[in-house]
Amino acid sequence: xxxxxxxxxxxxxxxxxxxxxxxxxxxxxxxxxxxxxxxxxxxxxxxxxxxxxxxxxxxxxxxxxxxxxxxxxxxxxxxxxxxxxxxxxxxxxxxxxxxxxxxxxxxxxxxxxxxxxxxxxxxxxxxxxxxxxxxxxxxxxxxxxxxxxxxxxxxxxxxxxxxxxxxxxxxxxxxxxxxxxxxxxxxxxxxxxxxxxxxxxxxxxxxxxxxxxxxxxxxxxxxxxxxxxxxxxxxxxxxxxxxxxxxxxxxxxxxxxxxxxxxxxxxxxxxxxxxxxxxxxxxxxxxxxxxxxxxxxxxxxxxxxxxxxxxxxxxxxxxxxxxxxxxxxxxxxxxxxxxxxxxxxxxxxxxxxxxxxxxxxxxxxxxxxxxxxxxxxxxxxxxxxxxxxxxxxxxxxxxxxxxxxxxxx
Length: 409
Prior knowledge:
Elements: E1 3-6, E2 9-11, H1 22-46, H2 49-56, H3 60-88, H4 90-104, H5 114-146, H6 151-172, H7 178-202, H8 214-217, H9 223-261, H10 266-285, H11 287-294, H12 296-316, H13 320-334, H14 337-349, H15 351-379, H16 381-401
Antiparallel strand pairs: 1-2
Helix pairs in contact: 1-4, 1-5, 1-6, 1-7, 3-4, 3-5, 3-15, 4-5, 4-7, 5-15, 6-10, 9-10, 9-13, 9-14, 9-15, 9-16, 10-13, 11-12, 12-13, 12-16, 14-15, 15-16
């Protein structure tokens, strides 16, 4: 059996192409599983937010503050995770944070005040943020080794996991308490992380492929080129922020909008988020083909505009079927914005660029929900959700503005 030196480089398999290499295939499957577990666990939490909100007796503003615990923990951890990945390896950090996330998801339904909820969500946010940066850093290295633009496929797994998690949550909501439901997810998460983690640890993902220097390969390499690449990483991070703001807002406030404003039951509320997850899954599964046919700029611009229109419909429509349709259109529009921004950042400066862009992007995903909470107290949830449309349009505008920067898109 070949011995792995670093990702994409093994002894005794020089005649194999990246697409047919068995080690790379196993690594891709294992990493795909981690993305799916991440989405599955997160969706399981979000579909029970209305029940947990009622359990702790929180107002919309108090819930927004509690959700800020997820944001604070995740964003703070993202800054640190890049260093941890460089020191210990993205594979080890991925496995460790996956275990912690599986354990911490059982904590929110065991709280009885908004303050206690915020504190346990801080722990949840630490694991969620660390896992997402570690996974994306590993994915960039694996994409480079495979030599194919498959970043969207990993994020499709996240969306697929979200779809399964939301669907399971809708089925279990009438029969299981949030505490029992999320404890079940803990067991499933630990079991899956254990199996997939063994593959990552057996075949370490470390460093970049031999002969690849992403900074040197970036246009205008050198001190000035490096500064230019860094600036572009920030720009793509802002695109990720705008698009992921909408994903986070839909995840944590979309079900509540259906249940609270349109008087749908918990199963219907879960179906609303499931529609988003299904749309994002389909969009990301077709992401590689869309990128090859349309180019990155068109995918980003058209996606942002589609999300903006869909969110206006989802936020302001007076009946549940139109709201769910709007949510689905928003999911389709947002599907490839985040992974495309991550891929561009990784192509410019390697895993460090992914870590930076991920901090921006997941910061938007996690800061969106508490922002929506504050706006809900001031103007109502439907109006607050229209900010998702505004930022999706901003993302489209930024993508168009930098269409000729870095490399052709």
